[in-house]
Amino acid sequence: MSPAKKKSKPAKAKKVKGGSRKKAPVKSKSKSGAPPAARKVKAVSFSPELKIYPTASLLFEETAPFIMKTAREAADARGRFVVALSGGNTPKVLFQQLTEEPYLSLMPWAKTFVFWVDERHVPFTDPTSNFKMTQEFLLSKVPIPKANIFPMSDGSLPVEQAASVYEIKMGKFFGRGALPRFDLSLMGMGDDGHTASLFPGMPQVNELDKWVVGYFVDKERKERVSLTFPVLNASRILMVMMEGQKKADRLKDVLEGRSDPPRYPVQYLRPTDGKLIFAMDAAAASLLKKK
Fold it and tell me: Domains in the chain, start-ordered, CATH in brackets?
């Protein structure tokens, strides 16, 4: 898909509230040496703000300026913009837009620090590497310092060790006194309702102490490294992007079905002091009840 040219008066996204309003208690556990802030999690409901755009092109066209605005505000307020990115096909067009004007000139690239939400446990040269895709479509085309980029895993270490090493890197960057807090975590939702590399039925979905997990998923998805929900939910903004009719059935179930207790990993996205946004095109939202 090629990015559409910016129109003078783009269509506005519809904003509605989705998800269950009931609150579910979130259990916590303790473990020696665990990050202090990961032990207690505020109980909040799953209630994302929905942004629905008429087309996929408009989804990307309107998300790019939102990211730029978020980045500039963070850099002005705190001296830096810290973002966690995901892989997959959906972000490619968005990344391409961020390499073009006006974003190329107006994004605070020198103050932008890039982490990853999740990664396949493969070399950076592997075609399935999230880092490789981001490097190809975004990082190699913008003036961001190399020291500001924190790849997750290159597949050279055992997967659990790779997760521990990434957690140490995050601890050095953010400090260990509290959970890391990203200004923006950009994510997607799989057809099975997973997000990041946290899959249905896997115990890592319920991890409360670790910031990063590394594990074998199955023969198809193999080994993955992923941020955990306590870290993701500490983000100032969590944005989940979706496009296409193939997302419609699962999205309807996620937003209009039972969410307490969560049935799908994506329903564990419940920012403790931030905003959760589901941004999608009309095709992905086609089965949702009209509001």
Answer: 14-18+45-281 (3.40.50.1360)
